[in-house]
Specification:
With about 220 residues, the chain is an alpha/beta fold. It has a domain of about 110 residues. Helices cover about 45% and strands about 15% of the residues. The strands form two sheets. The chain has a five-stranded parallel β-sheet with strand order 3-4-5-6-7. A two-stranded parallel sheet has the order 1-2. Helix 7 links the parallel strand 5 and strand 6. It is globular.
Length: about 220
């Protein structure tokens, strides 16, 4: 309401920093018991995930109605626009789980939540490279986001294998790479191959360096 009042709808507004059902539950339940229950009470975990998904759907629809035509998607933390679709969800706690527990007990609720808004857009801090094939296989996944330099995240993803995983899938890979121009270009070369839908989010000290980097990235990604 505050931003809509101040901008009169003339500036784009995104959803808030929405969390996945897994992230939300891990923030409200004692962590030690929560992760034990993945093995001891899997049916209760599934039920809790589904309830959180339903509540988040209701909450997000309220945001959608309030923001109206100013809404840009998929939301906070992601490259967003009025013409994109899907719902951005932070799913950082996925790095704590084995692939099978994550796939069986977490993804059904996240897919349900994402599909209510045109598809899932995935984010996790840290290194989720060991689950990249699993992430790329999420039903109706529109975009995946990760950090690829130590200045962006001290637990950044290695670049190896991402191009092979995401090329020709139609899934956008949103890569955040803070660092020198040389480092960014090296990472882009490692992440790019024909068939990739690649967004590169950078930070440079000067506008001139940023402009140079913009041109060089486009030269690589052809």
């Amino acid at each position: 309401e505050y931003f809509l009042d101040k901008t009169k709808g003339r500036l784009p507004i995104s959803y808030c920093d929405l969390q996945s059902p897994l992230n939300n539950l891990s923030n409200i339940i004692d962590t030690c018991q929560f992760y034990l229950d993945f093995c001891l009470e899997p049916e209760q975990i599934l039920q809790a995930m589904d309830r959180v998904a339903d509540l988040t759907i209701d909450y997000t629809r309220i945001q959608q109605e309030m923001i109206g035509d100013a809404l840009v998607k998929p939301g906070h933390g992601f490259s967003s626009s009025r013409v994109f679709n899907g719902l951005g969800l932070s799913d950082d706690s996925m790095t704590m789980l084995s692939p099978d527990l994550y796939a069986d007990l977490c993804l059904p609720a996240m897919v349900k939540l994402g599909n209510a808004f045109g598809g899932t857009v995935f984010h996790s801090c840290g290194n989720w490279s060991g689950k990249k094939d699993l992430v790329a296989g999420i039903e109706n996944l529109r975009m995946a986001d990760g950090a690829f330099s130590l200045a962006t995240d001290p637990g950044a993803n290695p670049t190896e294998g991402y191009a092979d995983t995401f090329a020709n899938t139609g899934i956008v890979l949103n890569t955040r790479i803070v660092g020198s121009a040389e480092l960014v270009l090296q990472k882009v070369r490692e992440l790019w191959k024909p068939g990739m839908k690649l967004i590169v989010v950078t930070y440079c000290e000067t506008p001139a360096e940023q402009a140079m980097l913009y041109d060089k990235i486009h030269e690589i990604c052809q």
